[in-house]
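Bench log, entry 3. Co-assembly request; chain sequences pasted below exactly as received.
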Amino acid sequence: MSFDFEPSGRVVVTGIGAVTPLGTGVDVFWPRMIKGESGVGPITLMDASEYSTRIAAEVKDFNPEDWLEKKDARRIDRFIAFSVAAAKMALDDACFAPTGELAEQVGVLIGSGIGGLTFLGEQHRRQIEGGPGKVSPFLVPYMIPDMASGYTSIQFGLKGPNNCVVTACSTGANAIGDAYHIVKRGDAVAMLAGGSEAPINELGIGGFCAARTMSQRNDDPLHASRPFDKDRDGFVIAEGAGVLVLEDYEFAKKRGAKIYGEVAGYGMSGDAYHITSQDPEGDGARRSMLMALKRAGITAAQLDYVNAHGTSTPMNDPTETMAIKRAFGEDAYKIPISSTKSMIGHMLGAAGAVESIICLLAMRDGIIPPTVNHEHPDEGCDLDYVPNVARKKDLNWVLSNSFGFGGHNVSLVLKKI
Amino acid sequence: MSSEEILSRVKKATVEKLGVKEEEVVESASFQDDLGADSLDIVELLMAFEDEFGLTVPDEDAGQIVTVGDAVKYIGGKLAATA
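Structure output for the full assembly:
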């Protein structure tokens, strides 16, 4: 078989892998999510006793030695280990193990919002305490966000385009969108795409505490992430990774791959407003959703489900609601919208990738995961948020939103085929 | 410190840093060729020896340490010089 393939211009998802606070592996986390379980609890990865936020959604069942050789497992930053694990699960799920010439046509684009902040913090402490001679030679490679892609490509021998996206909390969605374009134009026959994040460390928690963006419901972690609810008080930070195998449609069909769905539309925009605050009019979010619909060639009336960015911050939820209404008009009231961050928290740069996986599973099984902890409606939040209980519905077109510090807005439209 | 004790502590640090089995860490074993270390692993390992024995390995000396035996000999010499 020659790999001078003609791109079909259509890109499908043939494998998914996730490391989440509700478990490692799609088969572990998805049933728990449908039941509405929460992965939020007290922080155990560090001593959080002095911090204003002491809760997070941590990955509890992850052992780096299950995924990496011992030497690296011992020292590597968690965000790289998560990435390798999610990639391995996605490749296995796709029954895809490219070698030889084919491996040169398969690339990796796994982003991270922050990169190896845990390792950076530890090495900074070593330098302060012991001088420059105490800094690990692995500081630079384990800190840089592109090492999720780089290390993963080495693990699986993938020699196609190798790239990284860093767009804060829209990283995972941007990575999928950009990888989709790489496959669509024929620069690769397949891409591993997604995001990975491990921000639960002293600097990560300290920084977000200082920015006053996280929930302080420390005495009630299970109910801390409550998107669109009147009593929400900030997001719950989370960790993990999501990786998808994106593949040329004809190539996937030829090799008999199972297909979860098609990446049908990718919309993006910038707020050009403020470094951390969203445009209060939600104009950037509105435009990214409309661009995604336009590229997919559909109207809002055709959307069966929206996986919201839905962070549970006082600002995001009404702003996103307003943007959805401005983008979709009256149809906004008819489309079920849920925030799965209510259960797995906000995985920052991994969020968009894991939420795309959730959308594909929702389409596969015909079930919409709920927005849990939705108890008291709020004035600016008056759409159908699928409160508290999962809902059966045949889904053909879904949209996922991701917005990030810096004013990045990304919307992906996925389609059942 | 006896060379047996130095060897035992070098072995312990090497097993921990390189993720190899203790029986592989023999005096004739080359860190790079036999124990799978790359250039970054070597730097990390020398730093571990510095911590373990409370000494400094200047960059210009690092080239002398190719095998486990070289490390034991070098550390022994350093400790004797500072004793």
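The radius of gyration of chain B is 11 Å. The longest helix of chain B spans residues 3-18.
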